[in-house]
Amino acid sequence: MPLENNITITKISPEPWEFPDVNGFSTAQISPERVTKALFSESVEAKIWRVAARALRSSNPPVLYPEYTDERGNYVYRTLDFWTSGFFPGSMYLLLERSIRYNRKMSLRKPVDEIRPHALQLEHLCRWWTANLHQNALKRDTHDVGFMIAPWAMKAWELKRDPAAFSTLVMAAHSLASRFNTVTQCLRSWDTCITNRYQFTDSSLDFLVIIDNMLNLDLLFWAAKETSNSALYDIALAHARTTQKHHIRKDNSTFHVVNVDTETGDVKARFTNQGYSDDSCWARGQAWGILGFMQTFHWTRDLSFLSIAKDLADYFIAHLPADGVPYWDFNAPVTESCPRDTSAAMIAACGMLLIYKELSDTQEAKHYLHQSIKLVNSVVGMFLGHETLQFETRRLVSQVPVYPDGCIHEQTGDGFDILQVVHDIGTTPKACETILGGATINNYEFAPRRWSNHGLVYADYYFLLFGNMILEMGLESSIV
């Protein structure tokens, strides 16, 4: 069905952006122009490069991958089979995409004397950091294989036509599909789940499905198209429809976890694993829903998925605090110590930008574009690191002997420079290793461990992805 059949198209004239003062935080202090400056700044790229380049000192590619920052701002690492391993390499591939696809746009934005890594240097780092990740495509014990593979392997295929990345993507899709159950009509998310309140340890008795799993469907849809495999498409579509049925409340908030009966397909229980309570709305779960349903709409063109994504986005927007950065759970009691979640903000912003893209030149489209920019504006204003990093070159070898053709004697020529990251003059010498702060992995009361108020690798990934989406849509100039 054509999109226009159910949507009223109203073309409008551009209106100025307005960012009112709220609760002592002036969102006007960060204009859309400054948002784009933050998204594409040298400092943002330098932060990723500084962490990534350290791995070149090792004789072997990495087996540990950044996840979150400690109290000193340093990354804490996870093993390569942890679910977040794909996000840091994915961030590097987003920078490579800027260098390849959007090089002219990026060149126009930077000062003449600004230095950025060469595309070949970025490509080498990308391949170095992903050399050990291909093996994750064989994992059939988790739905997270999509998160582990897709952020970097899809770009490796799109940008460089890397055959190993293609094979890894297809293999990962089949590993994910192996978790589909024909009775429950969805993919199993977790085999086990243990908190200080409940535990599920027997996968024959419980079939746990989390809202996060919507983000892994993109891998199935992609592989279905690339390999003409309708079975993968059908699995992804069935999972999306089951999630639509079981995870969405009447008020358009979302449940985090649903336990489905494998004999009847009925819901046994709905509860949370990372939110405030079973009946609350965990902010990142809501954001996963927005982006996941929009990705599903992209592949299926089923208007019900667009509709639910808009409903989830409207709930997200309506429940933001006055300063615009979501608390970790929309129903958690708000106190001075109540943590935020910038990862939820950035995931939701990406989803809203996709809504804008699909609605095209309409009043409704403009609304979601404005909301996505305002959301990023608030995150930048409150949680973008204040330190500024920049690239500079340092002469490694001052001069080298040169013997030009036709000369009698050797001459000397300029030596070799190396690229390094330094702090801009007047900024904090100790920089947090993530681009953003203010993220929350898990603040659930009964979680075995609680993390909040830190940097987080996938908050940065979706921050960079948002910037690349802006470039892809040609919005980098029109929103300022």
Mean pLDDT level:
90
The CATH architecture: Alpha/alpha barrel
Count of the domains:
1
- Write down how many β-strands occur, each being a DSSP E stretch of 2 or more residues: 13
Q: Radius of gyration, rounded?
A: 23 Å
The share of residues in helices is: 40-55%
Query: How large is the count of helical segments?
Result: 14
Which geometry do the CA atoms define? Answer: globular
**Proportion in β-strands:** 5-15%
CATH top level class name: Mainly Alpha
Largest sheet: 3 strands, antiparallel
Q: N-to-C SSE series? A: EEHHEEHHHHHEEEEEHHEEHHHHEEH
Instruction: Enter the CATH topology name.
Output: Glycosyltransferase
> Which stretches are low in confidence, meaning pLDDT under 50 for 5 or more residues running?
1-30
Structural class per helix/strand content?
alpha+beta
Cross-sheet strand order for the largest sheet: 9-10-11
Distance between the termini: 35 Å
Topology of helices and strands:
Layout lengths: L20 E2 L2 E2 L5 H8 L2 H12 L10 E6 L5 E5 L7 H14 L2 H7 L9 H12 L14 H16 L2 H15 L2 E2 L4 E2 L5 E2 L4 E2 L6 E4 L6 H11 L2 H17 L10 E4 L6 E5 L11 H18 L2 H16 L23 H18 L3 H21 L5 E14 L8 E13 L33 H16 L8
Antiparallel strand pairs: 1-2, 3-4, 5-6, 7-8, 9-10, 10-11, 12-13
Helix pairs in contact: 1-13, 2-3, 3-5, 3-6, 3-14, 6-7, 7-8, 8-9, 8-10, 10-11, 10-12, 11-12, 12-13, 12-14
